[in-house]
């Protein structure tokens, strides 16, 4: 931070004697009011820098095509933090993507190696089966959705026995 000094006595002006909105800095020693902007002019941050030796991560190039001034925000801490986040996120996402792909291929009856994780689901794929029974009153009864072959055979056998007993 820049400390304004009196141009006459060269002593620092206390912050209580500065009114920034009115642009006034008052020196109690000299009893003189100065323009605050004139006391701080030329003391901007970086006013005394060496363009031939920029700090790490910055550059200054002046040649026949023009002047290029640049800086980077890259550093090791940001790199490691982003790397950790990227590996974690991609690892998490790859689990869901691999399950989606393997279950889709499984439902399409594509043979998969044994080491591929395939979600085990009841029914699904080509083995789905739904039995609709319409009663004499016109009501529909839905028996079983996504039945396996074993359950489908059981339902059909049970229905044949029940229908045979009723008729």
Question: Could you characterize the architecture of this molecule?
Answer:
It is a single chain. It is built from three helices and seven strands. With 167 residues, the chain is an alpha+beta fold. The strands form three sheets. The protein has a three-stranded antiparallel beta sheet with strand order 1-2-3. Strands 4-5 form a two-stranded antiparallel sheet.
Averaging pLDDT over every residue, what do you get? 76
Label the structural class. Answer: alpha+beta
Helix fraction?
Answer: 25-40%
Low-confidence stretches: none
User: Going across the major beta sheet, what is the strand order?
Assistant: 1-2-3
H/I helix tally: 3
Envelope shape = elongated
Secondary structure tally: strands: 7
Give the termini separation.
Answer: 101 Å
As a whole number of angstroms, the C-alpha radius of gyration is 41 Å
Q: What is the percentage of strand-forming residues?
A: 15-25%
Describe the sheet with the most strands. 3 strands, antiparallel
Encode the helix/strand succession as letters. EEEHEEHEEH
Oligomer class: single chain
């Amino acid at each position: 931070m820049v400390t304004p000094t009196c141009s006459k006595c060269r002593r620092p002006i206390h912050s209580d004697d500065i009114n920034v909105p009115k642009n006034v800095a008052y020196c109690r020693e000299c009893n003189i009011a100065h323009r605050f902007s004139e006391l701080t002019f030329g003391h901007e941050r970086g006013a005394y820098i060496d363009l031939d030796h920029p700090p790490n991560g910055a550059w200054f190039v002046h040649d026949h095509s023009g002047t290029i001034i640049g800086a980077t925000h890259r550093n090791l801490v940001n790199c490691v933090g982003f790397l950790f986040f990227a590996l974690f996120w991609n690892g998490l996402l790859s689990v869901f993507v691999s399950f989606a792909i393997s279950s889709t291929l499984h439902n399409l009856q594509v043979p998969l190696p044994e080491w591929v994780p395939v979600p085990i689901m009841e029914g699904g794929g080509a083995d789905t089966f739904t039995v609709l029974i319409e009663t004499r009153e016109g009501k529909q009864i839905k028996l079983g959705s996504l039945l396996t072959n074993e359950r489908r055979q059981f339902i059909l056998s049970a229905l044949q026995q029940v229908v045979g007993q009723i008729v």
